[in-house]
Write a structure and sequence with these properties.
4 copies of one chain form a homotetramer.
Chain A lengths: L3 E4 L9 H13 L4 E5 L8 H9 L4 E8 L10 H20 L4 E9 L9 H20 L3 E5 L12 H11 L5 E5 H7 L5 H6 L3 E6 L14 H10 L6 E3 L9 H6 L10 H20 L5
Parallel strand pairs in A: 1-2, 1-8, 2-3, 3-4, 4-5, 5-6, 6-7, 7-8
Helix pairs in contact in A: 1-2, 3-4, 4-5, 8-10
């Protein structure tokens, strides 16, 4: 059965002791199984503190991330690519130390609006790095899942099909696809075909509304998405993601173009999303009775 | 704010002490505000017992009904019409004694597949009766709401527009329209326009899935329906309705053509629906923040 | 590639020379490939005339039907069952003589609201008959497809899953499932899973709106349905069906509970549906480019 | 009745004689009423040639545009703001000379991913300019409509509600809102409420799929959008917009983050969209018959 998780930015924009403590407490109170921590700057992340705070709770943990211009493994510059590989290895190490099993997100590049199409060299570079990082990750019991994001957040691929082609070229079956309903709503032909195409290569799922606010207050066809997850017997993590100007990280707010406030009460938002996700899972489960 | 209710047939197929007691307890445990009791045979209904059982709870109560061939006020036969008027008056009396404020359903005829179109005489007869019953109901603090049902359950009208035209002819503004998502999914052009058309003439709402099973496991566009209810500031009752061979009344099961089992655990079904409805209401409420 | 067809009742309520001639001409003018003729009373159908009229056109032809109370092969009465078998054989013969390859509809019983659940005996009887009729049909190059209809039109099965179980018991792979979007909208959990479940056992498709009026003016999720047809590479007939009081057969109008006028201009309706269906097919075809 | 239009970038990426001639011919052949020309660099646009080419056709014309960093009227730099005002005035002049009545798009700023939130000064500057430009436009019989675009293409407002607030501050009722289904799918709570909110302040409509490919091959709920347009009796232009790497302008391709090919046959795409839009309009028109 899937762990139901919540992205830490629902609760906190900082990840020192206080922020993490708040995120852990609120995530548990809202009824989730898992906390997803954004590793915005892996080398600056205080693993020991995080480990201690998580140890006091029964929450599972996962991490998501994107690279920066200085660590873009999709770059043509060998120095930048090398820095990216170190960052990814560091992130794998952190997840492993925290007892997590999933590292996901835009692991293949920067989460930004690129000024032009991806290059063949950049693509090959990123694939070489991921091949190596995936082997280390596998040794640490950590699974990598590459998030498919919209055209404004990556130029490498924007659909599940594109990600599968990219992964076919990488050739390491341990790397999975990470689908996010927010991005799918923009880029995919629908919410079902991509999930069926990924099938057991689906490794991580983000649940976000079309505008990244309350679930059910936008245009995403969640009914179809959850039906599809059931069709392929998906049992990996399902994590809620929402961004508002109420809680943001200074880097992410600009990357994600969060200009408005779609909620102000994190607790209400988080509880609502947890109930929403579990209610959808139960609803599609009952289809077997039909 | 709307009372969130549950149709008693989710819990019981009989309405003596035991059945009603179970319905009341389970409805409360599932988190609802209101119990909707089907008055299948008003003259046989034990009001005193029902009143006693309800008095022990803090639930609000409403009643729904359809007429029978012997009491069809849409008939051309004056005797049958007269019997129908007595039945409706009895039902109003029961609702009033129970402390309820809503009598809804197919108050204008039989819930059945008619063998031909409605007649002008039958239409006029039913309107005459409703005009008189509505006045008595108003005196008792009971509001009548006419349910719009699908083509297989009435030939009088099958859309909100049809109901509004029918009510315009009745000419008593105290009678309202009762919309049901299950029927709307079959007959209306969508889930929003009918609600906007009814606006403050909307008096009662049924929430049923397309197949009358778990909410979210069918084809009804609930997202649009709840948005529409918010657009017109609807604050009347919203009651969940579901039918399965697991719990049925012997008359209703045939009228409703319930041939299969869409659930077996009433408690799980009822809790799920209560959470679903409240979750949708909260989601559309947050649209104001956008 | 699928033949795109139109149900003859869009154009005519009678099937003598004049009615059929009109149906053939208008169906061609509206751009369709195929005319679906309802064999309401097979023994009274004038095959020679129909053959002559069709010969002058380049339209393909198919036939649909339902049995009557006197020919219900789902009955427990051997005489009625026998009469039903003769009727079905007659229908197969007609389709074959007309050069058609498809006989579809409620071939397993009466299209009516049954007064109670199907019986084991009736189910077995209908299956025995269909087993024999299917063999004769196969010899004539005619494929039988059993239409899945809603609870108010049959008690034998109301979902694709139910039909597949019924057909598994029949055990003759030549008999296929006939899905109709109008009925699916009421009974299925969605428009995709049933098609995937049927896959190459899908033999015939009806396209009808939720209220059986203009396509796109109701609640059916056609986008999902056409995506599903593409996913299973469906290439059988796709026929538009719509009913209005503007054109009806006296038997069907009551069976189908057609109480209102959803269109008055058959030509406009028919052209619109043909464009709608072809437009949807093209749209989902382009998904391969994504 | 609405003019149905097509964005010229469906046909050509250049706007000299050859490109414009092709755009005009193909737009007519595909069945449209109107050609929408992107005024990417107004001062470099050859009005005389465009006028001559358009004169030979019976197409109506409109223009859309966005400003550049050097002409951003939402800037705090007076020189840039002034340059922007000149550019807008030039564009108004062009539309007027071409005999057009509509100038739309991101008239209030640059179509780009901004590096931070809009500033109060920039907002005020853009409003001052628009107030003046609108008066000149009105004198020329040209209506300005401000396009609501997604968070990655503007930071000024991303919803219809935001645009209406912005326009309330401008205080000139002649300036209208321009809604685009592609952007609405990302930012709005649904496809109906924004249209009802704008009502007669809706001045221009773009029809784009969620991924900007073939209509009906993505996730946009067009059924709801066209119902809403009918509800407010919208009769302004409805223009199809689609972008692919098959045809792009070098500036726009990067602004719009077009990294993949969603079509290659402009003629097929354009005809399909024209049929799609007219089919939807007809479908919702028939709802009046229900």
């Amino acid at each position: 059965m899937s762990d139901i998780g919540c992205h830490a930015l629902v609760w906190t924009g900082t990840f020192e002791r206080e922020g993490l403590t708040r995120a852990v407490e609120r995530t548990r109170n809202a009824g989730y199984d898992l906390l997803e921590i954004p590793l915005l700057r892996p080398h600056a992340f205080d693993v020991a503190t995080a480990k201690e705070i998580l140890a006091d709770s029964d929450l599972d943990v996962s991490a998501s991330m994107g690279l920066s211009d200085a660590t873009d493994i999709g770059s043509a510059d060998p120095e930048i690519v090398k820095a990216g590989e170190q960052t990814l290895n560091k992130a794998v190490e952190i997840v492993s130390e925290l007892g997590g099993r999933h590292l996901c997100g835009v692991l293949y590049g920067v989460l930004k609006k690129y000024p032009g199409p991806a290059t063949a060299q950049g693509r090959a570079n990123s694939q070489d790095v991921l091949r190596r990082v995936a082997r280390r990750a596998a040794d640490s019991g950590v699974q990598l899942s590459l998030e498919v994001v919209n055209r404004y957040e990556s130029n490498m691929f924007n659909t599940c099909k594109g990600a599968l082609e990219y992964l076919d070229e990488v050739g390491d079956d341990s790397i999975k696809v990470h689908l996010d309903s927010y991005h799918m709503n923009i880029e995919e032909s629908g919410m079902i075909a991509p999930v069926l195409a990924a099938a057991d290569r689906l490794g991580y799922v983000h649940i976000g509304e079309s505008h990244r606010g309350y679930l059910g207050s936008g245009t995403v066809d969640f009914g179809s998405f959850f039906r599809a997850l059931a069709m392929v017997d998906y049992d990996g993590p399902i994590a809620f993601e929402s961004f508002s100007t109420a809680v943001v990280d200074d880097i992410l707010s600009v990357s994600l173009a969060v200009w408005r406030n779609l909620w102000d009460d994190s607790d209400d938002l988080g509880r609502h999303a947890n109930d929403f996700i579990r209610g959808k899972l139960r609803a599609v489960e009952t289809i077997a009775l039909h």
